[in-house]
Design goal:
The structure is a homodimer of 238-residue chains.
Chain A: H1 12-16, H2 19-26, E1 30-34, E2 39-41, E3 49-63, E4 69-75, E5 95-108, H3 109-118, H4 120-146, H5 149-162, E6 168-170, H6 173-180, H7 184-196, E7 200-203, E8 206-209, H8 212-218, H9 225-233
Antiparallel strand pairs in A: 1-5, 2-5, 3-4, 3-5, 6-8, 7-8
The first copy, chain A, binds a DNA duplex (30 and 30 nucleotides) through residues 148-149, 172-174, 182-186, 188-189, 192, 204-205.
Chain lengths: 238, 238
DNA sequence: CTGTTTATGTCTGATACCGTACCGACTTGT
DNA sequence: ACAAGTCGGTACGGTATCAGACATAAACAG
């Protein structure tokens, strides 16, 4: 098997780290498929691997004691999981799982931990990513507090679109309703609203982005801040 | 002027760091008063000092382009500001300001930054605090999405109570309504509801915690998770 | 083709919360 | 003591969203 070439990977963090850093990681990286619902990390448990997604979308979900839950972050090939690795936390209270199937390079948790202790640049990059993710969850909090369902839905579609290859996003209303912590029929009506404005097209199990620019305009108050912050901290994606 | 003694400080992070770490910080620490509304950090600007509050409560607030805002984190003597310092972020998009006046030790941003680069233990402690704060904002997002105003208010009072000395918290309904991103009259009615259950007592400009245990019981689904996580990551407060 | 599952669309009534306005009560300054 | 400002209580109509149930429709499995 040939060695993994840095200029062939699609994960943004793997691309942006120095060639030296990548060189040290390379030997421990392993390619894996990530089917839908695959768990990348379980709440309050040490997780054996860190993942650098190459394709697909993962959700970070927080849960209350009574079982209410909502998504607080989205990870695609812009990031890695679990971000708490760089924060010395051991584990975190979230559930992280695949929402749109994909693939990733993974590396044993302890290996990556050891590497970042000796590589200040790499540590810095992942720390800045952790900050970008924290900002994402902060703006999710804001959005949950003040915005309407259709705007939050638009934000969510845009965030997934950013992390997808084409314009199609495969998932059900049921699933979306859990992510946004709203009723399933509310998702249906909100999608109809966006469809009525010709921003998206929606079929059984699929949402298709039809007019990205207009979608951004519609969501201008709810989408964009944390994306700007990501660019400042990490740099533009390919 | 005598040197600051570590066993006399009240800030939890300053107390919990090693004597060596504290020794290196000590020379740069400076005591300051923090009046209400004092800005500890401004959005998207480098901030000159890091603060370790000894008393009082600061809020981290995120704002949307149209000016909608909500609190995404609370900092008292359990923490420091800005937490993004340890994440190499330079600055962050939030506004951080005093909500209940107090005091703090402050240290030039660059000094602390330099110190944590050479002190792995100190870096680890502050990184874990950054994680604790991120968890706080994640649970705020959850709470904003699924809980009712009276529960969110109860959570908020508990979080402030944790960071206060007595049972009194001084602030106006107006202010609270901004923190929770609700109407001011909604705060009034929610407070009446908690008062009716004998959990608190409320006067012009003051909220008094009357029955902490019952308040926790009332807020059981909304308060507690991130507090547990703080204890795991940082350790019990004095 | 048929029955079963899964996903979506729709309805009805309830309710939590909003926007706005207004008024009284307390606080402060002169 | 009086005016001016601040803060809190209340009311009214409007609406976004909920809770739950039910009906269709597409996909799937035999």
């Amino acid at each position: 098997m040939g060695e993994i070439r840095q200029d062939m990977v699609r994960n943004n963090l793997l691309r942006l780290m120095s060639a030296d850093s990548f060189g040290r990681l390379r030997g421990d990286l392993e390619w894996v498929e990530l089917p839908r619902a695959f768990e990348l990390s379980r709440p309050n448990e040490a997780c054996p691997y860190a993942y650098f997604p190459e394709a697909g979308i993962a959700s970070i979900v927080a849960k209350s004691p009574e079982g209410q839950q909502t998504e607080i972050g989205v990870i695609g090939r812009d990031g890695m999981t679990p971000a708490s690795l760089v924060l010395d936390a051991g584990h975190d209270p979230y559930s992280i799982f695949m929402q749109v199937q994909g693939e990733a390079y993974r590396i044993p948790y302890a290996s990556l931990q050891a590497l970042i202790h000796e590589d200040r640049d790499l540590h810095g990059l992942l720390a800045r990513y952790a900050q970008a993710l924290a900002v994402q969850s902060a703006y999710t909090a804001l959005s949950n507090a003040v915005h309407h369902i259709d705007e939050r839905l638009a934000r969510w579609i845009l965030m997934c679109h950013d992390r997808s290859d084409g314009n199609e996003i495969s998932l059900t209303h049921e699933f979306l309703s859990i992510m946004l912590a709203v009723r399933r029929p509310s998702v249906t009506t909100a999608l109809h609203m966006l469809e009525g404005k010709k921003l998206i097209y929606s079929e059984r199990g699929v949402i298709i982005v039809r007019d990205r620019a207009a979608l951004e305009a519609f969501a201008h108050d709810v989408y964009g801040e944390c994306e700007k912050e990501y660019e400042r901290l990490i740099g533009t994606r390919p």
